[in-house]
Amino acid sequence: MGTTSYPETVAEVIESIGAAGQRLNDIDAVEAGAGNISACFNWPVDLGDFFNTTRELELPYEAPHLAGYTVLVTGSGCRLRQLARNPRNNLGAVVVHEGGRTGTLHFRRKGNFDRPTSEFNSHLAVHEDQVRDRGIGFHAVIHAQPPHLTLLSHIADYQGTPELNRAILRWEPETIVQLREGVGYLPFMVPGSDELMAANVANLRRHQIVLWAKHGVMARSDTSPLKACDRIEYAETGAMYEYMNLCAGGRAQGLTDEELGRVVRAFNVDTSLFT
Fold first, then answer.
1. What is the CATH number for 88?
2. Per DSSP, what are the bridge partners of residue 210?
3. Which domain holds residue 191?
4. Would 3 be classed as within a structural domain?
5. Cα gap 267→275, rounded to integer Å
6. pLDDT in 10s for each residue of the chain, 275 residues
7. Number of domains in the chain
8. Which of 9, 24, 120, 208 can pair with 29 through a Cys bridge, CB separation 3.0 to 4.6 Å?
């Protein structure tokens, strides 16, 4: 594992989840109990060092390729801003059984965690898809509700992947470097529905962050939960600039396509956008 760039211990993963939760709170992307984080990994660990209670759990999504993996996940109703102060009280760990239909849930008896987030099915579906297709040993997923991105999805001019990306990637050179595939756009679908889950999985094959119209975003990373959080922050910052420009009457130019193309070439960004 020394050649990998992802966290190498459970303590490091938990610390990264806590830092991501705090940062999402700082940018107002997780009001009250909204938002959730998970990370799966396939190395052996003694979870008794972190949690003191177990129970068997039927998984909300069948994930056979996650058999033997441990999935750390935030709890239903847990506030992400509490993660940095006491992550172990707000997290659980599911060790997935053979066949991927059940698992053993580990958590702290007197903590805030009672059961995984209600969107655990969407997290499992993305983890399962990425592990099955790419054989990765670590993967992190975040769902959050950044206000400026979510607002833009209510406006017809931004309701499409090309339209959204042309708007939010033009404000800072760093954005296209960090979001080389851009942000995927999904039209409104009922939260928690099979329709949204399937569309989200498919879009996260092409993008590392997807906007769920009139709801929020989901981002993923092979590196750490904090890296997935970074992707949300870059996209939200671009949306914030776009909102500010709307408020100013649309007078700001932003980077032109030609200027963005120069950035792409200068930093050897592997993208089909602005080339």
1. 3.40.225.10
2. 184, 218
3. 10-260
4. no
5. 12
6. 334 467 778 999 999 999 999 999 999 999 887 889 999 999 989 999 899 999 999 999 999 999 999 999 999 988 888 887 888 889 999 999 999 999 999 999 888 898 999 899 999 999 999 999 999 999 999 999 999 999 999 999 999 999 999 999 999 999 999 999 999 999 999 988 899 999 999 999 999 999 999 999 999 999 999 999 999 999 999 999 999 999 999 999 999 999 999 999 999 999 988 76
7. 1
8. 24
